[in-house]
Design a protein that fits this description.
Length: 111
């Protein structure tokens, strides 16, 4: 646009919902609150670099989706714990605990 390359992105389906869902499942939150989505949006925004913005991105590149989803899940789980909605015990190392719960897409080669 006007001689500048802009790269589209998708926040809700690619980043927000998977990260929020993971944070809710790991914390065993009783409810999903507006504050969780606000924390998720702020976490996503914190993952956008100056380089991303200079390239016309308003979301981090998809190659970083797992790291960004982890950041969003941590932010979501923290809200669940802070609001007293979490049924799961809070772990000292929440980052490692959530990372260990993430699905690892490993596929067997049939070639």
């Amino acid at each position: 646009m006007d001689g500048k390359k802009l790269i589209p992105g998708q926040g809700n389906n690619a980043y927000i919902f998977p990260g929020v869902g993971l944070g809710i499942v790991v914390s065993e939150s009783k409810r999903v609150t507006n504050e969780m989505f606000l924390a998720a949006a702020q976490a996503l925004a914190s993952e956008v670099s100056e380089t991303d913005l200079a390239e016309g991105r308003i979301y981090p590149p998809l190659k970083r989706i797992r790291a960004v989803s982890l950041t969003i899940a941590i932010a979501t789980a923290k809200v669940a714990y802070d609001q007293g909605l979490a049924a799961a015990p809070k772990r000292d190392d929440l980052r490692s605990h959530i990372r260990a719960q993430m699905f690892e897409p490993v596929y067997r080669s049939y070639v």
